[in-house]
Batch of 2 targets.
Target 1
Amino acid sequence: MAPFLEEPSTHPEFSSKPKFDGGLLDLPNRKEHNIQYEPGRTYVEGHDEYEYDDLRPAFPDVHWEPLKEVPYHDRGTKGDPQFRNLLSDATDIFDYNPKIGTEIDGINLAKLTDTQKDDLARLISTRGVVFFRNQTDLDIDAQRELGQYFGHLHKHATTAAPRRGGLDDIHVVYTDEKSKNQRANFSPTFLWHSDVTYEMQPPSYTSLKVLTGPSRGGGGDTLWASQYAVYDLLSPGMQKYLEGLEALHSAQIQADGSIALGRTVRREPVITKHPLIRTHPVTGWKSVFFNPGFVTDIIGIPKAEANAIIHYLNELITTTQEIQVRFQWQKHDVAFWDNRICNHSASYGFAPHRRHALRVATQAERPYFDPTSKSQEEEMNARYGLPKVSKDGSSQSNYND
Ligand SMILES: O=C(O)CCC(=O)C(=O)O
Ligand SMILES: [Fe+2]
């Protein structure tokens, strides 16, 4: 969650009936069905009685001890390299692009066997983020249980938990027509982040399920960017240089934001040093471990140089289309990402719709760097016999014409 993304909970009074749904382009014959279409419009659901009222956001006034180190063994290491257990139930599987993002259809996340869960972890580690449509059986208890299979769940110190209580390790994403104008609060690049990387053991497998949102085409998409791929964008000299550096990740900005809103900070904010390049324990691949949201400094180099690196990594993550994937949500869809190797960004422009999602995040290993590890591109190129792609900028071709 980006530093100030969460909103206070206010009960909306929207009672207008659905008028039309802009997301009907997939119907085979609109003429026959007498469908009306108005570009750029989606209906707003009536909000009087809300089925997920108990899962709306609350900010409990409680205080927790600092996080202690917890054991973590990555289940993905047991996964089948071809994901055969998981895919035995799939009706379709396809990538969104070569570097990041895969959708699997026909799988019920609430009913996976342990070997399927291991494959799932391995697939998420490999593809960065995996999408599952229409997971109606995966209620919040099942979503938690699946997260717990992978390890200890993270409890967020500042963002919202469900009103229901007893779900302190669930993070609630919520906006409705009463919410403040998000565009006024955040520049689009500021929205890019990975979750809680200031923790000693930042999360790995993280699921987000949308309970309610704009109908298809109504906005509120989420984007992810691969940090394996960021590493592969760098020149060999830059890769080597960054491999020796550590960055500071700070929880302070988020805590200050909560205090400014009059909310309790449930655990003392921490600042943690992590390697700027890390190795993934399942794939063995190197990835940049940078977070536009929480990295405040790079240690041991002049401040101006640290700022230049921070600026450069920010630019690569937020503007390189080939390393990004964008997901258009529908109700009950789930995105499962590996927070170690992805940044992500919400998008706005869907007001006044209600958009409500729940996130479960598993704490992972302490980030480490193994100098003998390979990059994603290095392994893929070797596996498929592809030539090395040149990284020099001397090409004469002009893509801007
Ligand atoms: O609302 C979204 O699309 C993403 C929210 C987010 O950053 C999170 O749940 O970690
Ligand atoms: Fe997030």
Target 2
Amino acid sequence: MNPNPAEKTENPEKLPKIEVRGLRKRYEGAAIDVLQGIDLRIEAGEFVTFVGASGCGKSTLLRCIGGLEHHDSGELKVDGRAVDGPGPERGMVFQHYSLYPWLSVRENIRFCRQLRVHTGERTSAEVEAASGRADALLRLMGLGAVAEAWPAQLSGGMQQRVAIARALMSRPGVLLMDEPFGALDAQTREVMHELIAHVHRLERTTVVFVTHDVEEAIYLGSRVVLMAPRPGRIDTVFEVPLPARRQPEMKHAPEFLALKRRILERIRATTGMDTDHELLERLSASAAP
Ligand SMILES: Nc1ncnc2c1ncn2[C@@H]1O[C@H](COP(=O)(O)OP(=O)(O)OP(=O)(O)O)[C@@H](O)[C@H]1O
């Protein structure tokens, strides 16, 4: 058994999709590092989920990988190249969908390609080809019937599908998702779980997914990375002992429930909580919009 699952050593010759070594970051004026000693290797095509107490730096780490934040020291590489800003090879989806309200669903999905044509980065032929991709994504996301609707006419779940389709438009090798389903009701979340698992299989995208929901983390991830606060660091990496293709009934399997219990206990230990009740209160307070 690999003593440190944060480092996948089965195939050391192969270039990892994402490689983080000794990463450290401190926000200006803060007394403590928001991230310290982060070591992580994520292989191409993996679906890795992150959980941990509020404020342990999950979003900051995701934003560093996305190039939206700079780290102070250590290495952070995607496809072997140091990250020094955002790029089309890394799509991002956040909890709040931030769609353009004056554009239709279809235009929202195509927006970045159209923008590049105006800035001269793409030829119109390339944009034509991209329209085919936009249509394919509309179908994949079940948005065909609402392609000409405005975002305000859609439910939260539909809007988040548009945001995911937009993030996939540039065929990113990496999809970074920060609490993407956090604002959705339980039933819509379940539908979105099946959808994102399907998209992951189909597009073979590497997914890094931050959530407060331990069940969601286990159901979607092949590994669950548990972070701890003050300073923000990786505490434990759990391998998920389930077949790659998940089915909703697996949520009731003994190995699923045992892992959920272990992760919740560990979160409780890293936050210094004494009771489940305290932990639940803390988790639900941090999950509130
Ligand atoms: N731009 C910023 N400037 C200063 N401090 C920040 C900034 N962004 C986040 N922080 C602080 O860094 C810490 C980690 O925040 P971050 O959002 O990364 O944690 P998180 O684990 O994603 O939290 P949550 O689960 O509550 O979303 C928090 O204490 C937060 O207040």
